[in-house]
Amino acid sequence: MSPLRSFLAILPLLLSISLSTSASIQESFIQCLSFHSDKGYSFNDSIYTPNSASFTSILDSTAQNLRCLLPSAPKPEFIFTPLTDSHVQVAVTCSKQLGIHLRVRSGGHDYEGLSYVSQIETPFIVVDLVKLRGANVDIQDNTAWIQAGATIGEVYYRIYEKSAVHGFPAGLCSSLGVGGHITGGAYGSMMRKYGLGADNVLDAKIVDANGNILDRKAMGEDLFWAIRGGGGASFGIILWWKIKLVPVPKTVTVFTVTKTLEQGATKLLHRWQEVAPFIDNDLFIRVIIQPDANPAKKGARTISTSYNALFLGDAERLLQVAKQSFPELGLTRKDVQEKSWIKSVLYIAGYPNDTPPEVLLQGKSTFKNYFKAKSDFVREPIPESGLEGLWQRMLEEESPLMIWNPYGGKMSEFSESDIPFPHRNGTLYKIQYVSLWQDGEKSAEKHIDWIRKLYNYMTPYVSKFPREAYVNYRDLDLGMNKKNSTNYIQASSWGNMYFKDNFSRLVKIKTKVDPENVFRHEQSIPPLPVSAKRTKCSKCNKWEV
Ligand SMILES: Cc1cc2nc3c(=O)[nH]c(=O)nc-3n(C[C@H](O)[C@H](O)[C@H](O)COP(=O)(O)OP(=O)(O)OC[C@H]3O[C@@H](n4cnc5c(N)ncnc54)[C@H](O)[C@@H]3O)c2cc1C
Ligand SMILES: *[C@@H]1O[C@H](CO)[C@@H](O)[C@H](O)[C@H]1NC(C)=O
Ligand SMILES: *[C@@H]1O[C@H](CO)[C@@H](O)[C@H](O)[C@H]1NC(C)=O
Ligand SMILES: *[C@@H]1O[C@H](CO)[C@@H](O)[C@H](O)[C@H]1NC(C)=O
Ligand SMILES: *[C@@H]1O[C@H](CO)[C@@H](O)[C@H](O)[C@H]1NC(C)=O
């Protein structure tokens, strides 16, 4: 063995000795941070170890999926909460120098907890951007610079503070962190009019694998393409986005109309599939589907379908559009409410009427559960018989939930390669499946098993070759061996589901900007190994290694 080879062979051993106790990791990290920062700056108050009184409350604070906080879930050695952009730079430098695996968290909504749990490496640390939440809105320029740790609700609020006729087309849930949210696409109730959040990004600042801060010009168009939809934590740490604001009317209109099976839900939903993706671009009607008590039969359940909508216009025009294009819904004036755009944000996010917009500044989430979720894209209407089978399965589960989101409109005007998000023209709608539960680990397996079976049942009705999935609904079931993050053959299977053929371009960009795979997780974009033959098997869409 050459001296270099033998040194490399014992390197992991050396690292594991020097990192053998958490106290020493934390101390070395603080020393490293101080060494690379302004003299005299103490990082003691920004580091939380499991011994700190506030460790658990900080770890739990923004974590959305309680399943990822169970005692059995691996915990970070410590959490670092940077106060400035340069702290994020030195965190990357120091984690590389000390060989400590790093996870980054903005809003904590990851479905598999990838921003605060590593199943593939110990030790790991969490860099939590919770204190980096600026939002500078420039109404004259129709733009804003927003910082990764801000929630999308804060961004909406900061826009509303300056203008009643500007908005931004991103998520429906107000507590999403813009750092993770926009890297995966970011859809919401204005997507049929303006596209995704990621379609409306003009510039960004990112810390790369070398600890440099790059803006669009410095990073180049390849990397700028990859971070707008290629999924979180594969290419670097987003510090800031520059977003393009969009016009919204002074008055918008919202409604929620609910129909049960007894009220003809199946026929109406069948019709919705044909109508919602093609209706006026100002109208977004999603459907929230879950079991509900059956008023006609004591103790029995039915399926309830709630048509929950935003219309970018007043009630009178909405009623005309509905009457002309979707008369089956039977929408009337008393079903609909006119509001300002910011109030419609609160309505769609599920806040009670009359909640003041300031609630958006609290960054609090209205959703914290044990859950497992999956997604599908639908390209042809599902026949009524298929829907009936779906109802049967939902009625067997305690707390299932589906949300169907219409596509079409502006979404179809972008090409599949404009950004890595490929689910464009031809997509009728997206399905999100969720199973929720309350009793932690106890029944987890049962519910996860249920949702996997449901997903199998849906195979004939949804997109094929590949079966598409939304990267922001991260799902570790998709073709991934959790123990092996460098398995390219398996990576191409989830990669093609999330990104279709854009996955190959993401792999090429990753190989260029982060060949050592500093930014990695269970489903991060893999770089090609230096030794890999860079050929692509044309029929099977897999990388030959
Ligand atoms: C209740 C709920 C409602 C949702 N509603 C919507 C919706 O309406 N529309 C929609 O499109 N999606 C929605 N999502 C999905 C959401 O967009 C994704 O979970 C998104 O990744 C969350 O971003 P985050 O910053 O909050 O999460 P995090 O858990 O902090 O991050 C998610 C991923 O991105 C990485 N990451 C975080 N910050 C950065 C950064 N600064 N730079 C690089 N990588 C980073 C993390 O490491 C992780 O891998 C919802 C999720 C939940 C739980
Ligand atoms: C930070 O913590 C270290 C070790 O825990 C201690 O020696 C040092 O004095 C602390 N520094 C400050 C400024 O509190
Ligand atoms: C979407 O695809 C359909 C059918 O292929 C085509 O007729 C239509 O023009 C496309 N729409 C856009 C906006 O490109
Ligand atoms: C991980 O996958 C790579 C590439 O397929 C393979 O060479 C390696 O042996 C695997 N490692 C483990 C631990 O399975
Ligand atoms: C992006 O994905 C689409 C859909 O698979 C594909 O047609 C296109 O060639 C891809 N673009 C790039 C640049 O890889």
Note down, in words, how this protein is organized.
This protein has 545 residues and is an alpha+beta fold. The chain folds into 4 domains: 3-128, Uridine Diphospho-n-acetylenolpyruvylglucosamine Reductase, domain 2; 135-247, Uridine Diphospho-n-acetylenolpyruvylglucosamine Reductase, domain 3; 252-338 and 369-461, 3-Layer(aba) Sandwich (Vanillyl-alcohol Oxidase, Chain A, domain 3); 482-544, no CATH class. Helices cover 30% and strands 20% of the residues. The protein is built from 15 helices and 20 strands. It has helices at 3-18, 22-35, 55-61, 85-98, 152-162, 178-183, 191-194, 216-227, 265-275, 315-325, 341-349, 384-395, 444-458, 488-499, 502-513, and strands spanning 47-48, 79-80, 101-105, 124-128, 135-138, 143-147, 166-167, 201-207, 213-214, 237-244, 246-247, 252-260, 283-293, 301-311, 336-339, 370-378, 400-406, 429-437, 536-537, 542-543. The protein has a 7-stranded antiparallel beta sheet with strand order 15-12-14-13-17-18-16. Helix 2 (22-35) packs across helix 4. Residues 1-20 and 533-545 have low confidence and may be disordered. It binds flavin-adenine dinucleotide and 2-acetamido-2-deoxy-beta-D-glucopyranose (NAG) (4 copies). Residues 484, 486-487, 489, 545 line the site of one 2-acetamido-2-deoxy-beta-D-glucopyranose.
- Provide the list of bound ligands, each named once: flavin-adenine dinucleotide, 2-acetamido-2-deoxy-beta-D-glucopyranose
The mean pLDDT is 92
Strand content: 15-25%
Helix share of residues?
Answer: 25-40%
CATH class of the largest domain: Alpha Beta
Low-confidence stretches: 1-20, 533-545
Could you say which overall geometry the principal axes of the C-alpha atoms support? globular
List the total number of helices: 15
The CATH topology label of the largest domain is: Vanillyl-alcohol Oxidase, Chain A, domain 3
Domain module tally: 4
- Give the name of the CATH architecture of the largest domain: 3-Layer(aba) Sandwich
Largest sheet: 7 strands, antiparallel
**Radius of gyration over all CA atoms, rounded:** 24 Å
Question: Taking strands numbered 1, 2, ... along the chain, how are they ordered across the largest sheet?
Answer: 15-12-14-13-17-18-16
Amino- and carboxy-terminal Cα gap: 25 Å
* Record field, number of beta strands: 20
The secondary-structure class comes to alpha+beta
